[in-house]
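To fix ideas, we reproduce below a protein record of this kind.
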Amino acid sequence: MTTRIAVVSAGLSQPSSTRLLADRLATATARELRAAGAEVELDFVDLRDHARDLADNLLTGFPAPALRTAIDQVVGADGLIAVTPIFSASYSGLFKTFFDVLEPDSLAGKPVLAGATGGTERHSLALEHAVRPLFAYLRSIVVPTAVYAASSDWGARGADQALNNRIDRAAGEFATQILGKPATGPADPYDEPTPFADLLAANLPR
């Protein structure tokens, strides 16, 4: 069975750092899923292509055919990668508008990997105080690691590797959620304690 991943990017320019981050998150996720034996299909949704249709949808309540296709790809996907530029310390209006036109509960229970881009590192917390609560309201399951990329993360010595590390960690968590595997953490040293009698016997003189 093919695992379908919808990749939503709210970048406004072409080329766009937001789309670039979305591409890298998608590539890393596909690599993780394929390593686990899954077949993967990626559906990319660039919201800039649907800006007018989104405004019309807000006014009429009905999506145009191209927007309907994009909505169906997102709603029908096994997982969602959603990346927005950060404007005024929050997600973009275009990003929010897309999720406003979805039917209630259409993303309930869906695994989501959230990402964002911005000019400086100061906006990174927008992922936690704006983007994550949005998907929590939509009852989606957002993976623990959200990925923020500032302008300085692209190509700077050491910074690009740090971004790659965040992408890989987030993609691993996302793939695990999609595949339905239990999350694994470090072993608890108290799960199988050594009985006190054994500890005492080990210290007795022989």
Remarks:
- The longest strand covers residues 79-87.
